[in-house]
Design a protein that fits this description.
Blueprint: H1 9-12, H2 18-30, E1 36-40, E2 42-45, H3 62-76, E3 82-87, E4 99-106, H4 126-144, E5 152-155, E6 163-168, E7 170-171, E8 176-177, E9 190-191, E10 216-222, E11 225-230, H5 235-251, E12 257-261, E13 271-279, E14 282-290, H6 293-309, E15 312-313, E16 315-317, E17 323-325, E18 331-335, H7 348-360, H8 363-366, H9 389-401, H10 409-417, E19 432-433, E20 451-453, H11 462-481, H12 502-518, H13 525-535, E21 538-543, E22 549-554, E23 561-566, E24 572-576, E25 580-587, H14 589-594, E26 595-599, E27 602-604, E28 607-608, E29 620-627, E30 645-651, E31 657-663, E32 671-672, E33 697-699
Parallel strand pairs: 3-12, 5-9, 11-12, 29-33
Antiparallel strand pairs: 1-14, 1-18, 2-14, 2-15, 3-4, 4-13, 5-6, 6-10, 7-8, 10-11, 13-14, 16-17, 18-20, 19-20, 21-22, 22-25, 23-24, 25-29, 26-27, 26-30, 28-29, 30-31, 31-32
Helix pairs in contact: 2-11, 3-6, 4-5, 6-11, 7-9, 7-11
């Protein structure tokens, strides 16, 4: 689906990456592959306050932001679209179901309701609104072939003054039909359920006889606005009803209207659908599947531009005051234009090669996601789950031996669905998830032929997110062109040690970019380097008088899953221990030769990387794990936090103190301190300890 254009699009959507994107598209075309790219970027307000912008899905302001964003997208980039509020999923432990604000538009750019004109937004008096309401009901009934008394009045116990009318309605493929619902004895009006949500979701369907028609069109006048709840229908009937409604609403000059209800699947393949979804802590935007990278890039720019207008953005500040992602992800989805054209079903070797490539390069799992990674995170690698490496290798190898050209969707799905899970067996929480690929008998959407890459977080610039998406597409093109025969890499302890640190992660990404460059796909490194610097902000950049340099950055951490904790209401919750933080100390070769470093009086010894000759400034690095907080619940509650951290730089023989720096609890960076302010005298006889001598990271919790 092509992203919408606008008069400002010529310069707004331009990107220097288009030649590379075209080369990737040419590779897919040469292999007769049509690969779609979808995404789920997330936005938060500029000032995200309240639980709904931290960990709760639904809250008091999120729907207002969704409507404001939808209005901006429609006005600037998607003319002719309509907005439809739809019920979402009901998750365990959540009182109310989630929702999605859909933007529905015709792919050819024509108005979604052909005969409708744009409704006037001017407000009308309550008396006039009630008159319009009654006239609209009569005209709509007549237009559908019914009498005016086909409507049943309803009472909303939450707002008895509102006007609600219900029309049982369905379509048999030829014409519309209705029936009169039998109300309980001595009741003249239908009583809606006393729950939250639109009137159309609160119909007392359980009180109807088993044979009664259970689909109904509901119209209500609430808060001075006309709200129309559309029943579940097939696409032809839905389009006919929407066209009738839009024409009547425009004819009567209704002020502000809201469409609500259920959207059918796009069987005719004529719609563009964008979903603005309530998700924990964020507003998630479901971008339509795009057949080109350029279309995907346009959507990200549209969201950036319209988000800015409604004071929303794709990043926020973490508790330490540093810029970070929204916390809600920015997942990418690979698929096909249709199930019949899905490129993965008949190319199991390609699927296996793609998975092997990602397993070999931990930077792809850790560099573009949040600080929380590892086995209990939202996107664990398959070799971080409870699976042995040989099980993964066995599954991938079996797929690689299947004959190409035949439809292998079932065996691909069944093989990978059980291998790509988190430690609890959840198929959705995986770095590369196959829960939407081909899971017969699963929930809706489980047989969509989609591969979801979840280890990607929203970034503060659309161009950065587009760059990451193009990298993923390029890797897909590269593994299609050159299937990977490599065995899986046994990273061992290096996975959660070396690759949790920023510098080794950058070196691994440089290896990826070098391999792609050798294959003819040349990326500029500066964009990725900018992302790397943003993801791992400097806590200290020490430039000493002798030209030696020392940089300190935050790394990633694999926070452990804790035991079940009783919650209010008799349920249980699973927490992770977020008390541990990891730092990287990266020094130039000159620094390592002339200086030593101590943290809280204990020495950290710098080590060379295997590929130090290729790394910038010939860096020497080490890591440090320390306890930042002691919040309940957490592991080892008897160990006190290590803040403030005091970093002491000495001469090579430790006879002279060159500099001291301190990181306090509420500070974003280390700050210089005088020697007389020292809290931790250095101890040459008590160096910091590692859990294994082969690791790069020390742990202040170890004595």
């Amino acid at each position: 689906m092509a992203a919408p254009h606008s008069p400002e699009s010529a310069t707004l959507f331009a990107s220097p990456l288009e030649p590379l994107a075209q080369k990737v598209a040419d590779t897919f075309r040469r292999h007769d592959v049509r690969l779609t790219l979808g995404g789920e970027p997330t936005l938060v307000p500029n000032d995200p306050e309240g639980t709904e912008w931290n960990f709760v899905a639904v809250g008091p302001t999120k729907l207002r932001y969704a409507y404001a964003l939808a209005e901006q997208i429609t006005e600037r980039f998607l003319p002719g679209a309509i907005t439809v509020f739809s019920p979402g999923k009901q998750y365990p432990g959540e009182v109310n179901p989630r929702w999605v604000v859909n933007l529905l538009a015709n792919r050819d750019g024509s108005p979604i309701a052909q005969r409708a004109t744009a409704p006037r937004k001017a407000s009308v008096s309550q008396r006039h609104a009630r008159k319009i309401f009654q006239t609209l009901l009569a005209d709509l009934a007549a237009d559908l072939g019914f009498t005016a008394d086909a409507w049943t009045d309803a009472i909303d116990p939450q707002d008895p003054k509102s006007l609600v009318a219900v029309l049982p309605l369905d379509h048999d493929g030829q014409k519309w039909f209705t029936e009169r619902w039998k109300l309980p004895a001595r009741r003249k009006k239908l009583l809606l359920l006393n729950a939250e949500g639109p009137a159309g979701l609160r119909l007392p369907l359980d009180q109807l006889p088993p044979e009664a028609l259970r689909r109904a069109l509901t119209v209500e006048l609430r808060d001075g606005t006309q709200r129309v709840f559309l029943p579940p229908l097939l696409q032809p009937a839905f389009r006919d009803l929407l066209d009738r409604l839009s024409t009547l609403l425009a004819r009567h000059g209704v002020g502000k209207i809201f469409f609500e209800g259920y959207l059918p699947s796009d069987e005719a393949n004529v719609w563009t659908r964008v979903g603005l979804t309530a998700d924990p802590g964020v507003l998630e935007i479901n971008v339509p599947p795009c057949e080109t990278w350029q279309d995907y890039h346009r959507w990200l720019v549209i969201l950036e531009e319209t988000g800015r207008t409604v004071e929303m953005r794709s990043w926020k500040q973490n508790p330490q005051g540093n810029d970070a992602g929204t916390g809600g992800g920015n997942h990418l989805l690979f698929g096909g234009p249709s199930l019949d054209e899905n490129p993965f079903f008949t190319r199991p070797l390609w699927v296996a090669s793609l998975l092997r490539y990602f397993q070999a390069h931990p930077s792809l799992a850790y560099l573009f996601t949040g600080v929380y990674v590892g086995a209990s995170s939202q996107a664990p690698r398959p070799d971080e789950s409870a699976r042995d490496l040989y099980d993964l290798d066995m599954g991938y190898e079996h797929l690689a031996t299947l004959p190409p050209g035949e439809d292998h969707r079932y065996i691909i799905g069944e093989t990978l669905r059980h291998l790509h899970t988190d430690i609890t067996g959840n198929t959705h929480r995986s770095e590369i998830s196959f829960d939407k690929f081909w899971n017969v008998g699963g929930p809706p959407g489980s047989t969509s032929g989609l591969i979801e890459f979840r280890a990607i977080e929203s970034l503060p610039r659309a161009e950065w997110m587009s760059l990451v998406a193009l990298l993923w597409q390029t890797i897909a093109a590269h593994t299609l062109d050159r299937p990977s025969p490599r065995s899986l890499v046994a990273h061992g302890s290096r996975l959660h040690d070396r690759f949790f640190l920023p510098t080794p992660r950058w070196e691994d990404l440089r290896a990826v970019l070098g391999e792609l460059r050798a294959a003819g796909f040349s990326f500029p490194e500066d964009g990725f380097r900018a992302i790397w610097r943003w993801r791992f902000p400097l806590l200290l950049a020490a430039n000493l008088q002798d030209g030696a340099t020392l940089d300190v950055r935050r790394g990633c951490e694999g926070w452990p899953l804790l035991s079940e904790t009783p919650s209010e209401g008799g349920t249980t919750s699973r927490f992770v221990d977020t008390s541990i933080e990891r730092l990287e100390f990266a020094a130039s070769a000159e620094f390592a030769e002339r200086h030593r470093i101590f943290v809280n009086g204990r020495e950290l010894r710098l080590a060379s990387l295997d590929d130090a000759d290729q790394s910038p400034h010939h860096e020497r690095i080490c890591g440090l794990r320390y306890r930042r907080t002691a919040l309940y619940p957490s592991l080892h509650p008897g160990i006190k936090p290590h803040l403030p951290l005091e970093l002491t730089v000495t001469s090579a023989d430790a006879a002279k103190i060159v500099a001291r720096y301190r990181l306090e609890e509420n500070q974003q960076q280390f700050r210089p301190v005088d020697a007389v302010e020292s809290l931790h005298p250095i101890d040459l006889h008590r160096p910091a300890v590692k859990s294994d001598p082969a690791l790069l990271a020390y742990d202040l919790r170890l004595e």
